[in-house]
Predict the 3D structure of the following.
Amino acid sequence: MAEAETKSIDNASIKMIDKAASDGVNTAFDRAETKKPCPIGVEGSCCKHCGMGPCRVPPPKGRQETPEEKQKRRGVCGATAETIAARNFIRMIAGGAAAHSDHGRGVAEVFLAVAKGEAPGYEIKDEQKLLQLALDWGVDIGDRSNQEIAINIGEIALAEFGKQEGQVLFLNRAPLKRQELWRREGAAPRGIDREIVEIMHRTHIGVDQDYRNLLRQGVRASIADGWGGSMIATELQDIIFGTPAPVLGRINLGVLSRDEVNLIIHGHEPLLSEMVVVAAQDPEMIALAKSKGANGINIAGMCCTANEILMRHGIPLAGNFLQQELAIVTGAVEAMVVDVQCIMQSLTAVAECYHTKIITTSPKAKIPGAIHIQFDEHNAMESARAIVKTAIENFPNRGSNIDIPKEQTDLVAGFSHETINYLLGGIYRASYRPLNDNIINGRIRGVAGVVGCNNARVKHNEAHTTMVKELIKNDVLVLQTGCSAIASAEAGLMTPEAASKYAGEGLASVCEAVGIPPVLHLGSCVDNSRILIAATAMVKEGGLGDDISELPVAGAAPEWMSEKAISIGQYFVGSGVFTVFGVNWPTLDSEEVSKYLFEDFEAIYGGMWAFEPDPIKAAHLMIDHIDKKRQALGIDKARERVLFDMAMRRELEGA
């Protein structure tokens, strides 16, 4: 147990890590100890883009490099360390942007099928958001039906991926000053797919060899993710599944049930999980479960799919990325159904030690040893029922080696942009004005987006919770998505009561007045687009500058590990947000590229990267940046409240 405590701060996870060791089960925590990262590759100085490599070009450690050494530090093709580091970095952006954008494409395809009446079981649930999107995209409303409008929107959304000219439509939502900057710098994306493909072309041997030019294309592709594919996914999911509103939920491995069929939904695309939730509530399925000796069916989520079904249905979360194997180790999971992204191939090996069945559903993501039940959105309920039935029929195969941790925590989730707008301003005067006013008067110091993954190279959940506690203690309102949000929820930071316990006096007073937690759960990792919209709303409300880069805001991913995190971070930087990452950094072996990202980017885009593994130090980098922005806005000092008499009012009007 003592060894397990070095791997996670979460008690439920610690217990299951210890149980896995007792059961002889190998997990990611074990592999992280035995599989040490390549010290050259992790810092970006290894190139394997052609058959003449891999070429490793690390600088000398512990002393200054001579000009002669730097001249020789090249790949076989002559590529410099700067070129290699920049190529590797933007290829990570391409991978992350492709993952998020392919998610968005899948949602757009289903959305269009729903509009055409070709996807039974789905429907348009948020008509108001449908009509707002139609206005944003110039779709004629008139006296047309919602289905006709939705068909146009679906066709336009799909066209965004392959568009060759112009710019991604959602860029029009950004502040005008930001749009002008993107166009001036050549960073406004055309089609989503085009920018990703162009990265792959530019990073092929013998193409783009100017690290500044390479990094500009990285910015353009990342913006195509944040303001393109991810935003499309979020908006269309809200329309067909409903825009999230605050909901009380439960989280951690303790949500698993001893006497019910446990079915875990894991992955990132809610297209299937929505149907599984419905199928599990079917009286016929419940009766089948009882005939097998269970008292019912318990659905729990894992990773970003968990966030999606929590926000819309209150379905409990079993955990985040590094807890997926541990859920199986409980011995109480009948089936884990997965779609795409962040799914460990080791799940089938862990499942062999228990009775759990792993069910893959996407043709893009198959795992040897898993059962494959193809998800067909045109007949979604049939697929969902087959999955639920497979889990039910496995219930009698449970062994006696069952240990479900008791730990579970309450949380409040579902804070979409629309919800924040409503909670702050009310139903008749929904507005971000109260947020801006409380930033101006200093009760709220600023806003931070803390997002991203878990990373087995650091203690599970520790960096997330340490950073978030430090931020809210210093009156910084925190917005979260993805596995980072799950970490904070497990630590009890996402209930209104957390404000008085953990937040500074100013932030706590605002949270208590509104009735919100000091840490707001905004959804899955594609829902980082909600943070972009929230930041834009702050700009448009007035009083805090004319661009996102002028706001007292910052971003972070303290336990990042995936390419998606790099793409997310880059589109926040490209949108004008100071963003700090922990764990490691993929360009450290190139001093020039790192300086360009950490310093020069700010002069170009108004935002820049930073790297700091210590979560407390990273939090204070963010706080210092927020204070710098407050000073630039002239709101760094408390202002005395003056009660104007009539003469003073007349004088003001005359001016």
